[in-house]
Amino acid sequence: PMIRRHYVDGKRDYIELPPLFRWLDKTGRKTKEVSVGELKVKEGELDQTRVNKSDTQFPLIAVDGLDEEKRYTLIDGRHRLQKLIRENKQVCDCYILTVGEYRSMITTGE
Questions:
Q1: Sign, Cα dihedral of 42, 46, 51, 54
Q2: Looking at residue 60, what is its pLDDT?
Q3: Which residue, among 42, 87, 88, has the nearest Cα to 63 in the 3D structure?
Q4: DSSP class of residue 90?
């Protein structure tokens, strides 16, 4: 089974994604349409099989104001984003977290 975690840049700290999905659901958070170019994405090779299989109907999750470089930092949905870019999509649906919400969900790694 795939571990559903987002690791905080360069650290062992992480956010468990299933509780985050439940929180988004429970709080009735609405998605926002975001330009693909406004998303900062972690570097690294992606498994193309996972990209192909990814369901782009499911919104991405990003944090507003975490990074200087770009407005939004992607924390879930790299494979979906890659697929959207390949399909020449300019915008995508994202759940947007504030920096405070994001920080409150971080578990400190051992």
A1: negative
A2: 97
A3: 42
A4: S
107 DSSP 8-state letter: B
C-alpha span between 74 and 102 (Å, rounded):
11
Q: Is 19 helix (H, G, I), strand (E, B) or coil?
A: helix
DSSP string for residues in 43-55? -S---HHHHHH--
Which tens digit of pLDDT belongs to each residue from 16-66?
Answer: 999 999 999 999 999 999 999 999 998 888 999 999 999 999 999 999 999
**CA dist 73 to 1, 26, 62, 110, Å?**
26, 23, 5, 24
- By CB neighbour count within 10 A (0-12 exposed, 13-18 middle, 19+ buried), where does 102 fall? buried
pLDDT band, very low/low/confident/very high, at 9 (cuts 50, 70, 90)? confident
In the chain the beta strands, taken as DSSP E runs, fall at 5-7, 14-16, 32-35, 39-40, 60-64, 72-76, 91-98
Q: At 85, which amino acid appears?
A: I
pTM: 0.89
The phi-psi region of residue 97 (left if phi > 0; otherwise alpha if psi is between -120 and 50; otherwise beta) is beta
